[in-house]
Amino acid sequence: MILQKANPDDHKILTVITQKSKAYWGYSEQQIKIWSDALTVTKTYLETTPVYKLSIDNQIVAYYSFVYEDEYTVKLDNLFVLPEYIGKGVGLFLMNDFLNRLKETNFKKVILHSEPNAEMFYAKFGFVKVGQIETSIKDRFLPILELMLNDEI
Fold first, then answer.
1. pTM for the model
2. What domains sit in the chain, N to C, each tagged with a CATH number?
3. For residue 53, which phi and psi values (nearest 5 degrees)?
4. Which comes out higher in pLDDT, residue 132 or 61?
């Protein structure tokens, strides 16, 4: 496994990973198309955001990205894994790398808007639900999760 910073030329493969990973949870092809803009990784995003891609056997199979909310808060913006690698430790590897990166910073809190089906995955790392936001699908909400990295802000 090789983890490295993504570059703008990775935008197409990262978009494919995002869409396939989202579809893994049983969303229809039509729903994925409705979410197309939100599930597209652009060159601009890759130029302006920390994005790390994971390659196995010279194939990009997963990635994560984060954004800075303020001087103490970072948001895990994306964490997507190709379906054939889900359940094989790839997500665990990415989360551990992400959290280890934060150890050398002043960030006190991580937030994220979770795919509802992935909420338990994040709970294993200590994330707790602090709210929810409504989505474009009736009666579907994204959990807002938070992980405190330090007792003080």
1. 0.90
2. 2-148 (3.40.630.30)
3. -105, 145
4. 61
